[in-house]
């Protein structure tokens, strides 16, 4: 079992206020406790995934995976949480390209694919659906480019 991320795992460069906020919000929580807290107010915690360090992001990735798989959009996605989570995954991949292993790349690609297929047929406003699908497609393309650049090294 992977140990809980430490404060340094959230803010590895020491001084990122957003990463420190993520630590205050989720630091010290198990994945299950973080999921419960996140589901209580996803609009409040969604950006935490964008700014936490890679090690903390990987640890809490199951929160994103489970949320996107289980929560029904009629009442939970009013503010496009799925879109912002896609931005967070893309941001993490961009910031940590060199750390995206083959296994993690495959896992993130599966997340992109499952999110795209799930939201494709959902009854959302066209504006929200387009924004969500566009972001997760962009994230998927970022992962493909990361994989290609890793293969050419």
Brief descriptors of the model:
153 residues, 74% helix, 10 helices, mainly alpha
How would you describe the overall organization of this protein?
The protein is an all-alpha fold and 153 residues long. It has one domain (7-151). Helix content is 74%, strand content 0%. It has 10 helices and no strands. It has helices at 7-10, 17-26, 31-40, 42-45, 48-51, 54-70, 73-76, 81-95, 102-120, 126-151. It is globular, with a radius of gyration of 15 Å. The chain starts with 6 loop residues before the first helix and ends with a helix. The mean pLDDT is 91.
Topology:
Layout: H1 7-10, H2 17-26, H3 31-40, H4 42-45, H5 48-51, H6 54-70, H7 73-76, H8 81-95, H9 102-120, H10 126-151
Structural class: mainly alpha
Strand content: under 5%
Shape: globular
- The total beta strand count reads 0
Offer a quick outline of the entry:
Helix content is 74%, strand content 0%.
